[in-house]
Amino acid sequence: MTKILVTGSAGLVGIQVVKDLVRENFDVYACYNETKIQFGVPTHLDLTKKDMIIDVFHTINPDLVIHLAAKTDVEKCELQKEETTLINTIATEILARESAKQNAFFIYVSTDYVFDGEEGLKKENDICDPKNFYGKSKLNGENTVKKFASQYLIIRTSTPFGIHSTKKSFPIWVKENLESGKEISVLTDQFTSPTFVPNFSKMLLEVIKKRITGTIHLAGATRISRYEFAKMIAKKLKLDTMLLKKSEIQEMGWNATRPKDSSLDVSKANKILDNKPLKIEISLELFLEQIKNSTKF
């Protein structure tokens, strides 16, 4: 049985991935730092501690590593650069090196923020030029994987959304505020490729089984602004779209620069995978159905 080490297993994407891997009868070691999950073999791992990373790796001796864990709060990354580097870059290098030593396949999940955001629908081989420290730390992670892992796949994704007990996806944030009658400011000039987490997980399982290497974009099939996405959510739920207030990035007063258009071209995934990237109309419908059937909401 294939042994898989998954970092970030308690996160929005990680929980879904671990569940799906267990369902497929893989031997899954679900690494977490603070929140233990009840799927696979729960394994404590602090990515800021080199010795712990190496010890966990040698104890498990995995055939495959899926490195999902990252410091992702863009503002905190800008202000906490040392910790961001430890988690997003140095830990990635250690895991990539250990994978190479044991001939384990290494999957690194990266981000649309490695691009400059001046033009959208970026392809896998387009030039990366991140504009904030989060994006730089993830690009440095990509480069360490290319340098040190013997067999690898780099996956870039964009704006994941799904159900999680503590982490609120963008659609949930919109839904809860509008249901409470609260006005919310939503960006009209930031475009992404929103990715339904169960769809991402299915695509990930397929690339594992097909042993695809190199770099691939696994994201939603629709380029859309935050505002248009919020409006679509409101209309689907028959909520008041007048509560959505248009805003622009320059008004936000953020420390970290945000890319205006970090949408991803997913034509490669669409061509080679049976599980295709979903258009936003379909993924949102599935997500809202999931919410309706969930006890968490």
TrEMBL record:
<feature type="domain" description="RmlD-like substrate binding">
    <location>
        <begin position="3"/>
        <end position="291"/>
    </location>
</feature>
<dbReference type="InterPro" id="IPR029903">
    <property type="entry name" value="RmlD-like-bd"/>
</dbReference>
<dbReference type="Pfam" id="PF04321">
    <property type="entry name" value="RmlD_sub_bind"/>
</dbReference>
<dbReference type="InterPro" id="IPR005913">
    <property type="entry name" value="dTDP_dehydrorham_reduct"/>
</dbReference>
<protein>
    <submittedName>
        <fullName>dTDP-4-dehydrorhamnose reductase</fullName>
    </submittedName>
</protein>
<dbReference type="GO" id="GO:0048269">
    <property type="term" value="C:methionine adenosyltransferase complex"/>
</dbReference>
<dbReference type="GO" id="GO:0006556">
    <property type="term" value="P:S-adenosylmethionine biosynthetic process"/>
</dbReference>
<dbReference type="InterPro" id="IPR036291">
    <property type="entry name" value="NAD(P)-bd_dom_sf"/>
</dbReference>
<dbReference type="GO" id="GO:0048270">
    <property type="term" value="F:methionine adenosyltransferase regulator activity"/>
</dbReference>
